[in-house]
Each structure stands twice: as structure tokens, then as C-alpha cells.
């Protein structure tokens, strides 16, 4: 079925793309995503992956090329990070509106300025509303698994939407982990060859990306909204199928020691494992704290989140990006809206942590819990805090 090996997570992601038999790859190098596509270019050049690798002059061109190859019916992949994702911005909306099942890994990194190459989630939060399926992983094994699953999700004829798998830059992308790599036979059985529902073919002409008058635009956007919302069921089915193959079951919202917890942390990405250590230590100290990990960002898992926090009195949402000028971080705002107008809900406080690669330790989470408990007891002066500001 597979074998265990020590491997850099970026290289594991590129092997997942290889095992998925991607047919077209267009990408531009940017730290800390570069190792993924650099290795893929080597696999193609060495004849280990039968794919077209398109070298381009920018990320804008990379995604534009991906739209062309996907429209022609090829299983298509790209990857980027930070300013590269920002440069793609115009094309991100087009890829999803035209329902092209492109798969992309984003090695999450802070947006400029100031110039920063380290990890936070400001790049993907700026692209929250692009109409793509968006998933977060917390370790290398999950990055490998979800990259493979993303192709099956995106290409499902009931979905047909591009899919992003987010992995934290450097914290995940550049570390070596012990991973279980599936063999080609197992992946081929799980992920058959791609058969596009629609493609550009001179023998059977179709129109793609047509102009829409105001009389049609709203209906098209509604169809996109319905498709993305309804993708939830297919995502869960793919994850269940993969669990039978690998033994690893994933959920839209993961829970860690939430039973009996009056206080819950909510995290996304690799810091979830750091938060688990804090939860363990707080539990040993007699503090009833648990952890909720948000894996599926789009479509947002409203019902799963409400079920996961049922019975808690305080929910502490940890953002890794700011909504500048807004009242809360992007995750905090989303989570808070999920509980309105629910009659029974926990008090919700938000904290921005780990911006621009600022170190986040188990002690950081314990200090956040302590401050949030004090705020909750005395009546918070605000709902969202930028934690650890110096000076």
C-alpha cells in the first residue's frame, strides 16, 4: 500500500502531485513554495512524471496557463505563496467562475509590507472570497494526503471547482518528517484518470468565459455559491474513501480534548499541534481547556463548528492575519457570524498571534487562555486582541 520515509514536506507534496499523475503544471518560484515546483520540474525533466511543465514569467501567467490547460482537459496543478498569490488575484476568480478543477498548494507566508518571508495566513485570508475550495493542514502527512485528495474533490462532476491546500510556509514546507507515502497502484485505484465534463475541442466547439449582462450575472454567481456550498458533501465522501485506503480519517472540524472543556481554543494550520501541547499541560494543571481545529475553510462548516463547541462557555479564536480597519480577524469574524443568531453559544474572543513568523510556543497559548479568561470574567473591553505587541 505504501512505505514510510523521512522526507521534506515540500518534496512530499510534489510526490503527491506525481502520484496523482498531473498532466500540466505551470508555476513560478517564490519562497517558501519553490521546492515543490522545483522538484516537480526535475521529475518532468527526468521522465519520472509524464506532464507538461510550463515555465512562465509570473504567477499571474502561471494561473492563466493553468486555466488554458484545464480548459483543454488536462489534470492541472500549480503552487504559490504570499505575493505570488496576490499577483494571481485577478485570475483566481476566473478559474473558479469557469469551474476549472485546478489544484494548488499555497505555502502560506505573510504579505508585504514590510517585506517578510515568514509564515502567517495573511496571503490566503486576503483570498478568502475567490470561490475556491480551501483546506488547511497541520503536518506533512496531511499535506501529502490532502494534495492527492484535492484532485479527486476538484474533478468530481458534482463539484468542478478549483481547490487550494494550505500548508504553513517554512514551519511545514521546509521541515523533514516521517511520512507514509502511498504507492502508485493504490493512488491509481483511488484517483482514476481525469475525464473532463467539458473541454475545448475544435470538433465539438463550446464557449467558455462568455460575457454576462446584468440580467445573467446574479444568477451565475448564485450557481457558483450553491456549487461551492454543496461541495461539502463530496469533500466529506472523498475524505471517508481515503480513510479506508490509508487509515487516516479527516473531518471538516477536528476536536482535541473537547469533552468537558469549558474553554476552547480554535486554530488553523500547523500551530494546532503546538496548541495541543498547551492543552495537555493546562489539563494536567486542572484547567478544563480543549482545542477545535478548523480544517475546511471553504465551504465553511457551520454545523460542524457549532457541534464541536457545544457546551463550552468561552471560545478563543486564534487568527494569523488581520482584517485591517475591521473589528476582528478574518477567522474570528467568520466564526462569530456562524453563531448568530444561535440562542445558546459560547462567549467568543479573538486573538491575532504569530504574525509575520513571530514564534508561537505552548506558553503563548497558555497566556492567551489566561488573558481570555480574565477578559471574559471582567467583561471584555473589546472582542479582538493583537496578542504580544511589543513596545
Structure description:
The protein is an alpha/beta fold. The chain has two domains: 2-246, Thiamin diphosphate (ThDP)-binding fold, Pyr/PP domains (Rossmann fold, 3-Layer(aba) Sandwich); 253-386, 3-Layer(aba) Sandwich (Rossmann fold), CATH 3.40.50. 41% of the residues lie in helices and 19% in strands. The protein has 13 helices and 15 strands. The strands form three sheets. It has a seven-stranded mixed β-sheet with strand order 3-2-4-5-7-6-12, with helices on both faces. Strand 2 (24-27), helix 2 and strand 3 (52-55) form a beta-alpha-beta unit. Helix 1 packs parallel to helix 7 and helix 10 crosses helix 13 (362-378). The longest helix is centred in the middle third of the chain and has 33 residues, at 214-246. The protein is globular. The mean pLDDT is 96.
Attribute tags:
15 strands, Rossmann fold, 41% helix, 391 residues, seven-stranded mixed β-sheet, 2 domains, 13 helices, globular, alpha/beta, six-stranded mixed β-sheet
Amino acid at each position: 500500500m505504501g512505505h514510510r520515509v523521512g522526507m521534506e514536506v515540500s518534496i512530499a507534496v510534489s510526490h503527491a502531485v506525481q502520484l496523482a499523475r498531473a498532466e500540466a503544471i505551470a508555476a513560478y518560484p517564490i519562497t517558501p513554495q519553490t521546492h515543490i515546483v522545483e522538484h516537480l520540474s526535475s521529475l518532468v525533466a527526468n521522465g519520472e512524471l509524464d506532464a507538461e511543465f510550463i515555465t512562465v514569467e509570473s504567477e499571474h501567467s502561471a494561473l492563466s496557463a493553468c486555466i488554458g490547460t484545464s480548459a483543454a482537459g488536462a489534470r492541472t496543478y500549480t503552487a504559490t505563496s504570499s505575493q505570488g498569490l496576490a499577483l494571481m488575484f485577478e485570475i483566481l476568480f476566473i478559474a473558479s467562475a469557469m469551474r476549472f478543477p485546478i489544484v494548488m498548494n499555497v505555502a502560506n507566508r505573510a504579505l508585504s509590507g514590510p517585506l517578510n518571508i515568514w509564515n502567517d495566513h495573511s496571503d490566503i485570508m486576503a483570498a478568502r472570497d475567490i470561490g475556491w475550495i480551501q483546506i488547511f493542514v497541520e503536518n506533512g502527512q496531511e499535506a501529502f494526503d490532502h494534495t492527492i485528495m484535492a484532485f479527486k474533490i476538484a474533478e468530481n462532476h458534482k463539484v468542478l471547482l478549483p481547490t487550494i491546500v494550505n500548508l504553513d510556509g517554512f514551519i511545514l514546507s521546509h521541515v523533514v518528517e516521517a511520512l507514509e507515502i502511498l504507492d502508485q497502484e493504490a493512488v491509481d485505484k483511488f484517483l482514476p484518470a481525469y475525464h473532463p465534463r467539458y473541454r475545448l475541442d475544435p470538433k465539438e466547439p463550446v464557449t467558455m468565459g462568455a460575457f454576462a449582462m446584468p440580467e445573467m450575472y446574479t444568477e451565475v454567481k448564485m450557481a457558483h455559491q450553491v456549487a461551492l456550498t454543496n461541495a461539502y458533501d463530496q469533500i466529506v465522501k472523498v475524505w471517508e474513501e481515503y480513510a479506508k485506503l490509508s487509515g487516516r480519517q479527516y473531518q471538516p472540524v477536528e476536536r482535541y480534548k473537547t469533552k468537558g472543556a469549558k474553554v476552547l481554543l480554535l486554530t488553523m494550520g500547523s500551530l494546532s499541534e503546538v496548541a495541543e501541547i498547551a492543552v495537555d499541560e493546562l489539563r494536567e494543571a486542572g484547567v478544563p481547556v480543549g482545542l477545535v481545529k478548523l480544517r475546511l475553510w471553504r465551504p465553511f462548516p457551520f454545523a460542524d463548528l457549532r457541534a464541536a463547541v457545544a457546551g463550552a462557555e468561552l471560545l478563543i479564536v486564534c487568527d494569523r492575519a488581520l482584517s485591517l480597519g475591521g473589528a476582528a480577524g478574518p477567522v474570528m469574524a467568520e466564526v462569530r457570524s456562524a453563531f448568530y443568531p444561535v440562542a445558546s453559544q459560547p462567549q467568543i474572543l479573538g486573538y491575532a498571534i504569530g504574525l509575520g513568523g513571530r514564534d508561537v510556543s505552548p506558553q503563548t497559548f497558555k497566556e492567551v487562555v489566561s488573558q481570555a479568561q480574565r477578559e471574559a470574567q471582567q467583561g471584555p473591553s473589546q472582542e479582538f486582541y493583537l496578542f504580544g505587541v511589543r513596545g
